[in-house]
């Protein structure tokens, strides 16, 4: 292709040339007005001079045409995998590729769009802007977006010099049901009611009968989910009560309806941190002794503990003549504590208590019932536990995990963590807090000097004493927990005897274990996530657990093997393919972990729609075409014309080219034209001088 043009390379600035033109016209006009016979020669002389100064040339270019580019963004995000959208996308890609290849001097440039990081959704406009920036703007003839239209970055749309079109996936009869959490607290008091606000709504071509009431399954942590009938299309305030402290995972799920587009947005997970208002502890001391004040000081030092201390200052057999009215200001409310308000306590501690008739058997029987209903007791046994007045000779024997042999051994020893204790979360790692200095294999804490000999009947022995005799036995009874400590010398650790020991940590763990805190459960399956990478932790007191079955949001199941990381603790790792709710199963244990939100942004709206892109398509003279109605033809249209119609979409040829060769031919010889101008001026002077 050739192109010719006249170019100027002036010897003087154009401003000077225009001024010279004006002066020349003025002088020639003046000569004509005065009747000079050589005015036309003066005009020719001026023209010759001005042409010489302008220095024109004739330029011939040899041009090679460049192809136009059609940009195509293919949406392969999660919402594009619903139903037949993936197949529709494949068909659209094939049609556009074929149609562009049939156009002269036109090439296709495409990019595949995946889910945005950090649940950003479909960033189609950002992808289109990046693709357009990689191509010369003068060669962009059009752009095509193959998507469901649910774009989440409209504000980043590029300023295209050509039409933009949407080939929309999805079907006209699509409908979907979605569960959304309107509001949820980050913290809640354990045992107190907390309210979640949620909504279940239908969208799209909803069939008749899809409204009304639906069944919502609600589960907290590893508890069995319970059903709740809720209305569709209304905000609902749902009360919940957290049963334990720490992170509580609340699972909400609605069963998929028949014909629903997807069930990926039918579930939601809320994580609420349970905080105990106050830990209510009833400390029952049988008689004053050196360890009694230690127990009291440990419990009172924690501001979150509400302590009620019941101490028997004078047993019935002691007759010292002091009137009862002078022993206390008010009568201690034993009936109210042990019968009426016992369920208000989180933990009851019996410290060297023995039967003396002060607490009737009916009170102790009620303590047993309290434990079976979900309460917790800790028995710190002294020498009296081995006598006929022992608490074991009461209704509490039905829940105590070990029986005294009536033998009390008074000999120095260091408490040892048993094999089971190394696995149990109450005693695991206690020895690392007081490491042995001489590599003796024994913990570095101080000795105790008394041990009540026990015969375990059930439960787990986690600490042992002299000759591996049981020292601390833990057990579950009904819904509650029981801890039996076969010595009253734990106070030696608090006093720092021989370096002391971790009495505070042991008591804290015991209290939290009796409160059923998830972090101190013996049998537990938990998961922690960093991005899409998940670490599974399985705690057990038994043998090596089985592999964990992980069910992804799309229903695919993978098996994750576990390896021993420490005694009683096994770990495994896997990476999720996409955000969503992953369900975990190992034996009888279940759990959930949410990678990102349970229902990602891609599933907040699932019904295909061109509305989000309507303004942008109109501004660029493009159109939206449903793929299910037939794939459009692609034709070329002139710039500025409508680029979409029934059954077709258009692109604008850009006519871009590159110059292969340039030939420049001067049209004047400046010196020759200067001489010509001088000759004409001389002729005008001679002609006018012949009057």
Describe this structure in words.
The chain is an alpha/beta fold and 691 residues long. The protein is built from 13 helices and 37 strands. The strands form nine sheets. An eight-stranded mixed beta sheet has the order 16-15-17-18-24-23-22-20. A hairpin with a 5-residue loop joins strand 22 and strand 23. The longest helix is centred in the N-terminal third of the chain and has 20 residues, at 14-33.
Q: What's the topology here?
A:
Layout: E1 2-8, H1 14-33, H2 39-54, E2 56-65, E3 68-75, H3 85-102, E4 106-113, H4 124-133, E5 140-147, E6 164-168, E7 175-183, E8 187-189, E9 193-204, E10 213-220, E11 226-231, E12 235-241, E13 246-254, E14 267-275, E15 279-285, H5 292-300, E16 305-311, H6 334-340, E17 347-351, H7 361-372, E18 376-380, E19 402-409, E20 416-417, H8 419-423, H9 430-433, E21 451-456, E22 460-464, E23 470-477, E24 480-485, H10 491-494, H11 503-514, E25 524-530, E26 533-539, E27 548-551, E28 557-560, E29 563-566, E30 569-575, E31 580-586, E32 589-595, H12 614-619, E33 624-626, E34 633-636, E35 644-645, E36 648-651, E37 657-666, H13 670-688
């Amino acid at each position: 292709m050739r192109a010719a043009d006249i170019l100027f390379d002036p010897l003087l600035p154009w401003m000077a040339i225009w001024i010279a033109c004006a002066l020349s016209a003025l002088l020639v006009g003046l000569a004509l007005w005065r009747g000079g016979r050589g005015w036309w020669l003066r005009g020719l002389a001026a023209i010759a001079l001005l042409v010489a100064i302008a220095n024109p040339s004739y330029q011939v270019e040899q041009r090679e045409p460049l192809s136009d580019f059609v940009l195509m963004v293919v949406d392969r995000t999660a919402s594009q995998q619903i139903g037949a959208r993936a197949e529709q996308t494949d068909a659209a890609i094939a049609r556009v590729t074929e149609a562009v290849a049939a156009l002269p001097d036109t090439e296709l440039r495409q990019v595949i769009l995946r889910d945005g990081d950090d649940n950003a959704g479909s960033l189609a406009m950002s992808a289109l802007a990046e693709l357009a920036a990689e191509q010369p703007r003068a060669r962009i003839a059009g752009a095509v977006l193959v998507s469901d239209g649910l774009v989440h970055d409209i504000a980043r749309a590029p300023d295209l010099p050509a039409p933009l079109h949407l080939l929309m996936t999805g079907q006209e009869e699509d409908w979907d049901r979605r569960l959304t959490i309107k509001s949820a607290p980050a913290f809640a008091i354990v045992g107190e009611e907390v309210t979640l606000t949620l909504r279940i709504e239908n969208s799209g071509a909803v069939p008749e009968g899809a409204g009304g009431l639906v069944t919502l399954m609600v589960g907290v942590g590893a508890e069995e989910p319970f059903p709740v009938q809720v209305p569709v299309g209304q905000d609902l305030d749902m009360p919940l009560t957290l049963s334990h402290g720490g992170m509580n995972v609340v699972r909400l799920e609605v069963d998929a309806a028949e014909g629903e587009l997807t069930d990926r947005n039918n579930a939601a997970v809320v994580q609420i941190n349970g905080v105990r208002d106050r830990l209510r502890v009833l400390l029952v001391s049988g008689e004053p002794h050196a360890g009694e004040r230690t127990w009291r000081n440990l419990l009172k030092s924690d501001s979150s503990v509400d302590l009620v201390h019941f101490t028997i200052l004078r047993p019935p057999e002691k007759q010292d003549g002091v009137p009862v009215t002078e022993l206390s200001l008010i009568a201690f409310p034993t009936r109210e504590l042990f019968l009426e308000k016992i369920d208000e306590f989180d933990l009851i501690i019996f410290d060297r208590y023995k039967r003396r008739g002060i607490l009737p058997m009916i009170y102790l029987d009620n303590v047993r019932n309290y434990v079976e209903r979900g309460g917790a007791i800790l028995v710190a046994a002294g020498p009296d536990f081995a006598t006929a007045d022992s608490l074991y000779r009461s209704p509490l024997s039905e829940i105590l995990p070990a029986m005294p042999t009536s033998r009390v051994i008074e000999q120095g020893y260091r408490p040892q963590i048993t094999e089971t204790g190394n696995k149990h979360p109450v005693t695991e790692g206690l020895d690392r807090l007081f490491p042995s200095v001489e590599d003796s294999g024994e913990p570095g804490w101080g000795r105790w000097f008394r041990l009540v000999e026990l015969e375990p009947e059930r439960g787990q022995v986690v600490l042992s004493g002299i000759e591996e005799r049981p020292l601390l036995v833990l057990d579950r009874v009904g819904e509650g927990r029981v801890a039996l400590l076969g010595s009253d010398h734990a106070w030696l650790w608090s006093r720092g005897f021989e370096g002391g020991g971790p009495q505070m940590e042991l008591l804290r763990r015991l209290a939290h274990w009796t409160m059923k805190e998830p972090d101190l459960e013996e049998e537990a399956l938990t998961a922690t996530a960093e991005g899409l990478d998940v670490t599974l932790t399985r705690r057990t007191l038994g043998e090596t657990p089985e592999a964990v079955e992980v069910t992804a949001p799309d229903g695919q199941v993978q098996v994750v093997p576990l390896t021993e990381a420490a005694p009683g603790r096994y770990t495994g790792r896997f990476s999720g393919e996409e955000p969503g709710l992953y369900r975990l199963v190992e034996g009888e244990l279940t759990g959930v972990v949410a990678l990102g939100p349970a229902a990602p942004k891609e599933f907040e709206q699932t019904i295909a729609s061109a509305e989000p892109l309507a303004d942008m398509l109109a501004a660029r003279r493009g159109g939206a075409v449903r793929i299910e109605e037939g794939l459009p033809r692609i034709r070329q249209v002139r710039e500025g014309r409508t680029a979409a119609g029934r059954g077709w979409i258009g692109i604008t040829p850009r006519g871009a080219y590159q110059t292969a060769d340039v030939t420049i031919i001067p049209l004047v010889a400046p010196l020759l034209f200067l001489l010509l101008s001088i000759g004409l001026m001389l002729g005008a002077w001679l002609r006018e001088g012949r009057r």
